[in-house]
Amino acid sequence: MTRWLITGAGGVLGRELQDVLRDRRAETVALTRRDLDLTDGRAVRAAVRRHQPSVLVNCAAWTDFHSAEEREAEALRINGAAVGALARACADASVRLVHVSTDYVFDGTARRPYAEDAPVRPLSAYGRTKLVGERAAAGLVAAGGAAIVRTAWLYSRHGTDFVRAMARVERAGGRAEAVDDEWGQPTWAADAARQIVALARTGAAGVFHATSGGAASRRDLAGEVFRLLGADPGRVAPMPADRFPGAHLRPRYTVLGHAAWARAGLAPIQHWRAALEAAFPHLDLDA
Prior knowledge:
InterPro entries: dTDP_dehydrorham_reduct, NAD(P)-bd_dom_sf, RmlD-like-bd
Family: Belongs to the dTDP-4-dehydrorhamnose reductase family.
Mean pLDDT: 96
EC number: 1.1.1.133
Shape: globular
CATH architecture of the domain at 3-160 and 187-213 and 256-270: 3-Layer(aba) Sandwich
GO molecular function: dTDP-4-dehydrorhamnose reductase activity
Structural class: alpha/beta
Protein name: dTDP-4-dehydrorhamnose reductase
Radius of gyration: 19 Å
């Protein structure tokens, strides 16, 4: 039986992974940052030896975009150096590693979906530190013992996110504004979690994009939330991304390609509109 170890288990994707693995009655150890300091290499090695997983999924990350700009060295310890420690521990113990990364490794200047092997050029400290993490795992990926899974624009019943925020606005009877000049792929975190579990079970190595199909702006996503709540999507007004601080550091287009899934014998995640409709009854939007 496959034994799973999740690091960063307190985050949105980590919690969704626990839900998926619990439903499948998989043996799982879930470690939050309180349980394991990933910047302590000896502690990381000890945890891998103690729990003896077959697969380690690293969901841990410094994800606060603005604070990463101000505290890049600290973000680098979590997003970069800690991944190196995990990769070494996994290599020593013959554990398969799945490391979760981000669309922010790209600069957003493309006009067609980024392939898994497209050149990377992060604009922000967050993107730079996550790229260091990818490179720290690259040796284990090349040896066939790891996969890097990039995901983006996650929403979930756990925590707070854009979908839940837009639902609150609609139910309060308000008029929303949402950016209409940035493009990405809204992704149900449960879909990403299921995709990661399926990938790990194949044993495939390489870089994969666990995002929904299609492309959307934040305004498109907000409008769809309103529509699914029975409201007029026209209540969502457009706004430019440069209204927000640090907009020049955010990639404007991070639609990702999904060709690598076929090489692993897996179908990609469904289109974002279908995924959102399927997710809606499970998002606990009244909470």
